[in-house]
Design goal:
single chain; 13% strand; alpha+beta; 10 strands
Length: 469
């Protein structure tokens, strides 16, 4: 796995020199590890069914790389934050050193909050694909990383399946929102239309606090907690701490939470069907109800209620040099509202990934370029194979990708065993059917040894094949 990154440094491998002596004396030298080592880019593919442990495995891999990097640079810790002290509010305010290894690891709680959800088989299932390109210096130190994401399951935002939850960030945010935050994001009882207040009684002692049950995006499935007993409140605190470590300023965090609250309010908006009459005759139309949720959504999105209503209930069509506005019926307006929520959430997720990359990417200066231009290891964490009662397009792509990866793995595995058996068979035949009859008796002991090796490999191959089948 670490073959291309100076194994003698990263893995403590006792490399053998040409003279047959141990190469550890080179390792203790002045830092010149020999000219024969050629850094090579490597890749790690983490695949499997949903709930198999891909996300945890990716964390273990990242922790392993960070541990090796810190071990290598123990005597050079002052270089850890040379390029990043200006990014982190914690570093500037508290004087704490935040190294690149810690920042790479702290990207996990942020991406998990906005990209993971509870499914039928996994309480922390990644609903997006993630490729992490980890860069190392020529000495084996972790110099930076870059994260690429794909296929975020935005349909889950609108229609989570029965027995599943929406994305973690909604539950975490509502579990930890303070009274001041609830007022700022309009999450008090006066701005949320909830069945729990249908009797018209508001306020007073014992009034329930606005929670996940009051939002349509979260209460469709009736599932609000996690089976692994992980506290949403604690996870929210961990996410905020990670954001500060990565370099999110308080205003950026406030804006992200503002969008999270706006999406929750958009899910509670309602429409009323109407009939519109114009020069073309009668047509189906609708209007956005002026409810507290709609007013809160418009304010949090930074637009007026009238502009929001017009954007969701009318369609603009360009005909030549003229733009014609036509009304949409209630079904079309609901679809437009869903598209708005998915686009807003998707843009927020892309912004978070870009912000994380801005902090953990490596940008060496010219004098340091020769130390940073080494190899990289790519870690690909793909979705888990899963079959739902109703599979969306993203899930079809996920399942197809897993099938292709599984097919490649089996072909690669069996081809290795086939080559191993073939080489053993060729060696056995060359030793057994030698043209020199005079050496038959003298080489009987050697051929018996090669035969044992051949049959041992063949038995091992058949055992593995039987196990996989």
């Amino acid at each position: 796995m670490m073959r291309g990154l100076e194994n003698r440094v990263l893995m403590g491998n006792a490399a053998k020199r040409e003279d047959g002596k141990n190469g550890n004396r080179e390792l203790q030298g002045s830092g010149d590890h020999g000219s024969n080592a050629v850094p090579t880019n490597q890749s790690i593919l983490v695949s499997g069914e949903s709930g198999a442990g891909k996300t945890v495995t990716t964390k273990i891999v990242l922790n392993y790389f960070a541990m090796l990097s810190k071990k290598i640079t123990t005597t050079h810790s002052e270089e850890c934050t040379r390029r990043r002290q200006s990014f982190s509010p914690r570093t500037a305010a508290e004087g704490e050193e935040v190294c690149i290894e810690q920042q790479v690891l702290q990207s996990n709680p942020i991406l998990e909050a906005f990209g993971n959800a509870r499914t039928l088989r996994n309480d922390n299932s990644s609903r997006f694909g993630k490729y992490i390109d980890i860069h190392f210096t020529n000495k084996g130190k972790l110099s930076g990383a870059k994260i690429e994401t794909y296929l975020l399951e935005k349909v889950r935002l609108i229609h989570p399946s029965e027995g599943e939850r929406n994305y973690h960030v909604f539950y975490q945010f509502l579990a930890r929102a303070s009274a001041e935050e609830r007022r700022a994001y309009m999450l008090d009882e006066k701005t949320v239309m909830s069945p729990r207040y249908s009797n018209g009684i508001r306020g007073g002692y014992g009034r329930p606090k606005i929670g996940v049950e009051d939002f349509k995006l979260l209460n469709q499935t009736g599932t609000y907690d996690r089976r692994d007993k992980v506290s949403d409140g604690k996870m929210h605190d961990e996410m905020l701490e990670a954001m500060l470590t990565i370099g999110f300023d308080p205003d950026t965090i406030h804006s992200l939470m503002r969008l999270v609250a706006a999406i929750l309010h958009c899910g509670n908006m309602t429409f009323t069907s109407t009939e519109r009459k114009d020069y073309r005759g009668h047509s189906d139309a609708c209007h956005l109800d002026k409810t507290p949720s709609a007013m809160a959504a418009a304010k949090l999105l930074g637009v007026t209620f009238e502009d929001l209503a017009e954007a969701l209930t009318t369609r603009a069509i360009r005909a030549g040099n003229e733009i014609v506005h036509t009304p949409m019926d209630m079904t079309q307006s609901k679809k437009a509202c869903e598209a708005l929520m998915k686009a807003t959430y998707g843009a927020s997720f892309d912004f978070i990934v870009a912000k994380v990359n801005e902090s953990i990417s490596s940008y060496p200066s010219e004098p340091q370029a020769k130390n940073y231009s080494s190899a990289s290891i790519g870690v690909l964490d793909i979705f888990g194979f899963e079959t739902f009662e109703s599979n969306n397009f993203e899930q079809i792509c996920i399942n197809y990708t897993n099938e292709v990866c599984g097919f490649f793995w089996f072909c690669y595995l069996f081809s290795l065993f086939s080559l191993s058996c073939k080489s053993s068979l060729n060696y056995f035949n060359s030793r057994l059917f030698s043209s020199s009859s005079t050496n038959t008796c003298s080489s009987s002991s050697k051929t018996s040894t090669s035969a044992k090796g051949y049959y041992g490999n063949l038995y091992h191959f058949l055992t593995i094949k039987k196990f996989w089948i």
